[in-house]
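New to this. Please check this fold:
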Amino acid sequence: MGSLPDFPKPYVIEDCMGAVKLYNNGTVLRCNDTKFKASYVEDESVQYKDYLYDPKNELKLRVYKPISGNPNPRFPVIFFIHGGGFCVGSFSWSNSHNSCIRLASTLKVLVVSIDYRLAPERRLPGAMEDAFNAVKWLQRKAMGLSKEDYECGGDAAWFKISEVDFDRVFVVGDSSGGNIAHHLAVRVGSDSAGFDPVRVRGYVLLAPFFGGVDRTKSEEGPSETVLNLDLLDMFWRLCLPHGEASRDHFCVNPFGPWSPSLEPLKLDPILVVAGECELLKDRAKDYAKRLKEMGKKINYIEFEGEEHGFFTDDPYSEPANKFVEILKKFIYENST
């Protein structure tokens, strides 16, 4: 009998910080035991609950609700989208969880923190579609509670119209979540009536993960403690559609050659935040500058000496305290 042929063993072609490994045969190996997650914060002033918002794709979200001490007639809503280069991260990771606990407890808001499908298993624009579906889920909660729901408890205890102000929703996106927030702003702004009674009043983009073929000065360095240009490029290779897609893809570059014009669109107020030492700083700053020149209501704030993820890495730090105060002001100014 002849010997069986030797088949080449699969080998890793992309290794994303050990959290995601892509093999040459298309296999993806994920490691959920990441070493860069912080400890979980315990805060008895906030309760939280997980929901399945997309049964088909088994996508969940987590709702955070302050137990007491609401100074407002009803809780505003923060719709939080985690970061991770479209390839890693989850609402259940400690960095996202702690950030949402901080926002709910300090600002006295209802926080809805979502998961979305990750690349390379699900490439862009899948994440944008998932976030849109999560907003529609929130809309169903806002309009779908019957008298029986209120009487038997369950979801009604978390989404009471008498306690939650669905007319004051603010989208906060971190890194790739900031990119998703931009695409939500474009999609929701063009058809805000289609989301009644949910009304998005503003968007906060924390160092939005934008890109482009042409490099910016900040991308050229120096590298950050965690992020470097090679890692950013790896994220794009893993999340962009297969084929000829480049970093000027419309999901990546808001002003690329294949991106729709933003000038004729109606956009709700946007706040862009970045750290002075971020590789992504120039893109965030240019995004705000271009939209302001189009007459959009947008502000850019830069945190001196800070790197990417300064809020989510430590939501109780002094820079994070400052950001929370800025966010509080943004919510107040755009609530009417």
Notes: The longest strand covers residues 164-174. The radius of gyration is 20 Å.
